[in-house]
């Protein structure tokens, strides 16, 4: 299950809320969660907000759990590596903040069409054209990024399933190298397609 590019149709208040307001809310909430040191009030409040958001949107707690499973490798990385240098409370607090932001971002993408997100980004960047910013190009890059996430996730799932079918387990080295190669191949194909259409 991928986090980005998986819009779920619905009629909830979150679905009807303009994309710009949702993205602004995401930025504000992310700042509230990430800026101060981990504390019970912002982590607990963030967790309540995430749960409420998935319920109000009609997406449900089952999908919330699937989103957590989808980022399990990120969770392991956020916990395992810092434990070598930091105390357990700090590690868990920092990991919780990042996870909450990711789950909120997933909620935004699941209740907002990609075209609406791109339109909102281009609208916000339009005044910056006088400084050399190209809103259309930024929108294109964002669209390609959103599109790449489920593609790479699909490649990863196929490689994992293939390894399990052959060996019954997943070898990290035999998994990461092919994933990197195929991801770079996808990036090259995308670049070639854009160049063929005159996009620099």
The amount of helix comes to over 70%
Distance between the termini: 32 Å
Shape: globular
Radius of gyration: 19 Å
* Total beta strands: 0
Q: Helical element count?
A: 9
Structural class: mainly alpha
Largest sheet: none
Order of helices and strands: HHHHHHHHH
Proportion of strand residues: under 5%
Unreliable stretches: 1-5
The average pLDDT is 81
Count of individual domains: 2
Give an overview in words.
The chain is mostly helical and 200 residues long. Mean pLDDT is 81; it is low at 1-5. It has helices at 13-16, 19-34, 40-56, 61-70, 72-80, 88-110, 114-125, 135-167, 172-196. It folds into two domains: 1-112, no CATH class; 121-200, no CATH class.
Main attributes of the structure:
200 residues, mainly alpha, 2 domains, 74% helix, globular, disordered N terminus
Task: Summarize the topology.
Layout: H1 13-16, H2 19-34, H3 40-56, H4 61-70, H5 72-80, H6 88-110, H7 114-125, H8 135-167, H9 172-196
Helix pairs in contact: 2-6, 3-6, 7-8, 8-9
Put the structure in a nutshell:
74% of the residues lie in helices and 0% in strands.
């Amino acid at each position: 299950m991928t986090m980005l590019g998986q819009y779920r149709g619905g009629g909830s208040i979150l679905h009807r809320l303009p994309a710009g307001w949702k993205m602004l809310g995401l930025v504000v909430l992310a700042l509230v969660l990430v800026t101060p040191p981990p504390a019970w009030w912002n982590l607990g409040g963030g967790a309540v907000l995430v749960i409420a958001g998935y319920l109000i949107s009609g997406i449900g707690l089952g999908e919330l759990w699937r989103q957590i499973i989808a980022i399990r490798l990120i969770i392991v990385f956020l916990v395992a590596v810092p434990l070598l240098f930091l105390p357990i409370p700090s590690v868990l607090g920092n990991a919780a903040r990042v996870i909450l932001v990711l789950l909120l971002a997933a909620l935004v993408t699941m209740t907002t069409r990609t075209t609406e997100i791109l339109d909102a980004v281009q609208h916000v960047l339009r005044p910056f054209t006088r400084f050399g910013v190209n809103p259309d190009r930024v929108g294109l890059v964002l669209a390609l990024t959103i599109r790449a996430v489920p593609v790479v996730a699909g490649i990863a799932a196929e490689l994992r399933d293939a390894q399990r079918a052959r060996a019954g387990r997943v070898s990290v080295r035999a998994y990461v190298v092919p994933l990197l190669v195929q991801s770079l191949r996808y990036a090259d194909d995308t670049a070639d397609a854009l160049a063929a259409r005159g996009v620099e």
